[in-house]
Amino acid sequence: MPDSPTRPAPDYLGTGWAFPIQQTLQGGIQLSPAEQSVEESILLILRTHPGERVYRPTFGSRLAELAFAPINTQTLLLLRLYVEEALEMWEPRIWLESVLAEPTPDRGRIDITITYRLRETHNRRSLVYPFYLMTEGEERASFEF
User: Fold this and answer.
1) Number of Cα atoms under 13 Å in the Cβ half of residue 27
2) In sequence order, what E strands does the chain have?
3) Distances (CA, A) of 140 to 18, 23, 134
4) Residue 8 and residue 13: Cα distance in Å, rounded?
5) Model confidence over 29-85: pLDDT tens digits?
6) Which CATH number is 24's domain given?
């Protein structure tokens, strides 16, 4: 049964720091409850490059390796593979159902649609992660925060 406003979220989903890190009105650390915490965790995993985390050198995804790749079938397959590898390794609260990469070449973007189920409740959820490809000499970041 899905969570309702009167019923608390399952304990296994937990509560974590909000991403990006924010303060509450009282000056404390803003926390994200349940499903929001899972979604923020997915985004954090995809935006982190392996080697960026101290004591967790393999944490993150390899998406940044494709920042200058051409939009072709191989790049789309690698995007899907890198997302699947990262989420299966680092987000144990979900079952990954599908990863779909849809290119928008005129905008230099690939929309990655991630469909997953929360393990305990089986609630089906999805999110779209925009991945931007850069051309040589372009100054902007490959990820939009």
Assistant:
1) 0
2) 15-17, 31-33, 94-104, 109-118, 124-132
3) 25, 28, 8
4) 11
5) 777 677 788 898 999 999 999 999 999 999 999 999 999 999 899 999 999 999 999
6) 3.10.450.40
Tokens of 92: 């144990």
Gyration radius (Cα) of the chain, Å = 17
Q: Which amino acid type is present at position 67?
A: A
Assess if residue 142 is contained within a domain: no
Please tell me whether the overall predicted TM-score, pTM, comes out greater than 0.85 for this model: no
Judge contact between 103 and 37, C-beta under 8 A. no
Do 13 and 34 form a contact (C-beta atoms < 8 A)? yes
Q: Is residue 143 part of a domain?
A: no
Q: Residue 141 falls within a domain, yes or no?
A: no
Instruction: Note every long-range contact of 82-88, with CB atoms under 8 Å and residues 24 or more positions apart, other chains counting.
Output: 83/46, 83/112, 83/114, 83/129, 85/61, 86/45, 86/46, 86/60, 86/61, 86/62, 87/42, 87/45, 87/114, 87/116
